[in-house]
Amino acid sequence: MIKLQAPLAFAARLMLAFIFIVEGWGKIGSYEGTLQYMENHGVPGLLLPLVIVTELGGGLLIAFGFQTRLAALALAGFCVLTAILFHRNIADIGEFIHFNKDLAIAGGFLLLAAFGAGGWSLDAMQLRRAAPAHRI
Question: Where are the transmembrane segments (predicted)?
Answer without folding.
Answer: 7-26, 46-66, 73-91, 103-122
